[in-house]
Design brief:
single chain, alpha/beta, eight-stranded mixed β-sheet, three-stranded mixed β-sheet, 23% helix, disordered C terminus
């Protein structure tokens, strides 16, 4: 069984990152079950392993943290659902590309419950929404693996302050915008999104089928 935890309030980044890494290590040792942590962070920017300094447009706007995950700069803040995904890929096939695809499909299936058509884009990890001649990003994905256990995960914009994204070039992509469920005209809450995510999750991450290896 995957353990589900909702962290109350705005989770401090550094402390939560440390707890997440410790949990991933415990999963790798076989001392804890797989886990999903649902949370919000205070306003901040994180820098992935591919982040370019030039993409940090306003470095003094919010705290900036190195994340250790893949990807570039990402914003986190109130009104955005972050899900830390700690799954044992050693029991789930050890296919990183398939795992990222499953995360994208999980988000796309969740958005479909709100009649939103989320889409992938070649060469761009994440989920996008086409809008009148342009496309906006609604969800970001950034993961890291250690001993075949994943950590970090996904973020979906429910009702964040979209102006906060202007302090960075989100994920290194400057010619597309950012959107949210509320920006698309849907009065969706974090609780609504969580219910949809949990209903959709087993479709894309069935119980572990392979023995530890």
């Amino acid at each position: 069984m995957v353990e589900i935890t909702h962290l109350a309030g705005l989770a401090p980044y550094v402390e939560t990152l440390g707890l997440m890494e410790a949990r991933a290590e415990a999963i790798a040792r076989g001392d804890a079950p797989e886990a999903l942590w649902f949370l919000e962070h205070p306003p901040l920017y994180t820098a992935g392993t591919s982040a370019q300094a030039s993409d940090l447009v306003d470095p003094d706007r919010f705290p900036v943290f190195p994340a250790g995950r893949g990807g570039q700069y990402t914003y986190h803040g109130p009104g955005q659902r972050v899900v830390y995904v700690m799954l044992d890929l050693g029991r789930r096939g050890r296919d990183v590309r398939q795992f990222v695809c499953a995360l994208e499909n999980w988000v796309i299936g969740t958005l479909a419950q709100f009649n939103i058509k989320g889409e992938r884009r070649a060469g761009r990890v994440g989920v996008w929404v086409a809008r009148e001649g342009r496309e906006d990003k609604i969800a970001a994905i950034g993961i890291r693996l250690r001993r075949w256990v994943s950590f970090h995960g996904i973020s979906i914009n429910v009702e964040p302050d979209l102006a906060h994204f202007t302090g960075i070039v989100p994920c290194g992509i400057s010619d597309h915008g950012v959107t949210s469920l509320v920006d698309l005209g849907l009065p969706v809450t974090l609780a609504d999104l969580d219910a949809a995510l949990l209903a959709e999750f087993p479709k894309h991450f069935p119980p572990q089928a392979l023995p530890p290896g």
